[in-house]
Amino acid sequence: MATESAAPAASVDQDAADLAQYGYKQELKRSLNIFSSFAVAFSYISPATGIFTLFILGIGTLGGAFFWTWPVVWLGQFIVALVFAEVSTHFPLAGSVFQWTKYLSKNKTYAWYAGWIYLWAGALTVAAVVATLPLALIPMIDNLGISSIKMDPASLTNQKWIAAVTLIVITMLNIFGVRLVALINNTGVLFEILGLFVFAIILALFNHHQSVGVVFHTGGPSFNASNFLVAMFMGLFVIYGFDTASTLAEESHEPRKKAPQAVLASIAAAGVIGGVFIYAMLLATPGSMSSVIKAGGISPAAIIDANLSNALSVAYLLVVSVAIFVCCLSIQASTIRLGYGMSRDRQLPFSGAISRVNQRTGTPIGACIMVALMAAIFLLKYAGVAYIAIAATGMILPLLPVRHGGDHAGAVEGLAAREGRLQPRPLGHAHQRAGDPLGPGHAGELRLAPRGHQPEGVGDHRARLLELGLPQQRPDPVADPGRGAARRLGLLLDQARADTQPSGHGDRRGRIRIGGP
């Protein structure tokens, strides 16, 4: 028993030491295992949520042929996920996109911009998803047949108040701690798999009204680029947020290993299950596809209600409602960690209050409240979930070049690490400023160094090189021209980036402050 209990403690200590290399103290509680990391990422993607929100837009624009937007979006996002998985192995920090941009671009304005836009996109997505819940919950309540609790599903007021209550509930749950969030998300993943896969098979096998070739028919509209792009909005709204597993890296065990696995597993599972669900919905669509197009589309709730018995319809909508709820919880948890990561680097107003972690729950309560208030803004003038969902998707699209902005630099640095050309800058480096415990090159920071250059104190850090797995022998460009070319490219990149190095002013705990624009 002593050995079993010592193993997790040793893992936590090692993870905390790894975090300390970036100048951060372990404040959040590490309680997520690999399945919990997968579950929180899958719950963020949540095919049930996005499909319930914008399925009507896809089928109303391109009929059954809109199905092909799903694999196109999935393939593009899977390529992004491969990049995210690679980067998350190098920077297992709360805040994902903000942290990655900070370390890869070395540009304080660029990092602040990426974090700020992604923060608002996350708040918008929280608002969009809590506003999605009424689309499944209200029809479920109506199908119970209890007249005293019947609600009008088309009423924006009803939708708004259910969304507001949901926002309050998920905020309270996130305040209680990541362990509770993980438990609910683990359960929610099982509900979602049940709801999207098992019930989808039931619809496809026993309630199909369309032919198997429905995916090749538009029902009237032209299959052109403009219609295809509009129909793609559903897929774009669904398949993102898989970086959540890395956003919660400071609360995961072995994040360098487990976070990338969770990122790729979540998007792979979402792609398969979402595709099956969409196809089943198309097969079960009642009436002719042309009549559906003329009516402006049809929602999944209407398809389910038209095909299943009342009892099965209620059960299905309950399952989907739970899946949407845990999606809300996961998205807010991810956005909270982004806000925490930015405030910890003094990138937000009232950063001290936002980044303060409650010792009992291990939660940044100020960040929880901040994200809830940001999401509530979009519910004040409520005009329907579709507007919020499209706005959230529109905010994510400009971030694609930001997300990829540092990838070339990261690729070169990764190559350089494998060739043994990276050196950690020692604490006693000449560029360390007075009053800055760690200076601009804090412990564990890897910097490209010219061949043969030995900065002061680097001889004391040969053990650190071995710990990082970097060979001490540098490649010979004459004996191996390919390696020499890679080294020269890295040096040119390092020189070009020298002018954009952050100022490196540290706070009391030695963390790097990169400042806002």
Structural class: mainly alpha
SSE topology string: HHHHHHHHHHHHHHHHHHHHEEHH
Strand content: under 5%
Looking at the structure, the CATH topology of the largest domain is Amino acid/polyamine transporter I
Tally of individual helices: 22
**Architecture of the largest domain, CATH level 2?**
Up-down Bundle
Give the CA-based shape.
Answer: globular
Please compute the radius of gyration using only Cα atoms.
25 Å
Low-confidence stretches: 1-7, 401-517
Description of the structure:
The chain is 64% helix and 1% strand. With 517 residues, the chain is mainly α. The chain folds into two domains: 29-405, Amino acid/polyamine transporter I, CATH 1.20.1740; 410-500, no CATH class. It starts with a helix and ends in a 20-residue tail after the last helix. Residues 1-7 and 401-517 have low confidence and may be disordered.
Question: Could you give a quick summary of the protein structure above?
Answer:
By secondary structure, this protein is an all-alpha fold. It is 64% helix and 1% strand. The chain has helices at residues 2-20, 34-45, 47-62, 69-90, 97-105, 108-130, 133-143, 156-176, 178-206, 225-238, 244-247, 255-283, 289-294, 300-307, 310-344, 351-355, 365-380, 385-396, 399-404, 407-418, 462-467, 481-497; strands at residues 422-424, 446-448.
Attribute tags:
single chain, 517 residues, mainly alpha, Amino acid/polyamine transporter I, two-stranded antiparallel ribbon, disordered N terminus, disordered C terminus
